Structures are given as structure tokens and as C-alpha cells.
User: Fold this.
Amino acid sequence: MSIKKSHFKGNGVAINATDCSVTISDSVLESNATPLSNGLVAINATCATANCAATLTVERSRIQSNGKALYVTNNATVLRNNLWLDNGDSGSSGAYNRVLEFRGKTAQVAYNTFVGNFNSCSYVGLLACDSGTCDAVGNITWGNFPGQSCNDQVIYNFQTMTYNLTEALQPGAGNRSGDPKFVNVTGRDYTPGPGSPALDNGSPTNAPADDFDGKPRPVGGAPDIGAIEAQ
Ligand SMILES: [Ca+2]
Assistant:
């Protein structure tokens, strides 16, 4: 199934796929699964068995203000060029809320930007690889856990992390920490601005050919870290 240029708002579960390959592109998912309670999530993908061939791809989409954003069981998953903003729940139901949760198979999280996501800071990670093999390349995480002090727990239990720009420095080639200097956070422009450590510091060999806006990548000799390539 292919879901393109769609807008899902205010649902308990927005997209629920069972033993079914799904590609979500150029879409908006907002204010789903909130207030959060058991079983609610914006995107839920499940394979009944570990060797199920179903896949999940999410690309060039904005996933914002959902109580829980993503829960995957056994699907081979690719998340590429997305904005994940302000998702989470800090109430009792969110105490151990992994905002993006991967269980089994493989997950590649590539060139996304994560800002303002949160849970109750219970040290369980916002992006959690519960099982399977998870890889994060070229992502920005910044300003997550607003007002809290667990920014080292944004990404949990990934096997490989390279060329990411995060609040707390992660082990792995090309990883950096620091302020991505977005052009206009208030105006929700997450383009890396002048002097940003995201500029031209993505992987020289592992980046999509476009960005969140569908514009070409790389510009300026090397890919930028995050969902948006400065043009
Ligand atoms: Ca660049």
C-alpha cells in the first residue's frame, strides 16, 4: 500500500498495517494517539512472524504532536527525510513511552530531524531499538526532552550510529553534538543555518538523493545532516 500526500489528524491509531507493506510519503500525521493510552500510536506496523516480508517506509513526512509516533513489530523499516516534532506523553501513560519503538527485523533511520519529542524522562529512550538491528545515520536530534535533563537518552540501543548530530555525543564515525542552528525554530524552518555543524557533515557515501522538500542532495559538496539540505 502506498499513502501519499495525506493528512491524518486526531485519530487514536492513524495507520495500522498488519502483514502488509506500506510506504507513507509526503504526508502529515498530527495529534494522533493523544491523550495516550495503551495501544494508541500514530503509525502501527506488525508482521505476525519474524520472517514476514512486509516492510514499512516513511519518507518526507511531518509527524507532529502525537502521543506515540511509531510502533513496529517485525517489519523491515526505513525512515528517511522526515520531521518528528513534539511527539510524546509525560503523564502516567507516558512514563515508559518510547516515541518510536522498533521490535525485531531491521530499522534504518536516515536523515531525519527530531525536535521537541519527550516522555517522562524515565531513561527508556525516545527512539528505542527493543530488538532486531537498528541503524541511525545522518539524523539531527535537538531540543528533545524540553525542560528535562535526559538528552543523552534520545536514542536507545541502536547497534550502529554514524554521522548524527545529537544533544549528547554518541559513539560512532562522524557523530557530532551541538546546536544545529536551525534557520527559524519558531517558524518551523529546520534548515541548518550559517555555521551549523550539520552543514556538509552527513555521510559522504550514505545519503538519500533528495531531502524533506524533495530537493536534491547533496548541495555544497557533501550531504547535510538532518531532513533538510541547505540549498
Ligand atoms: Ca550540503
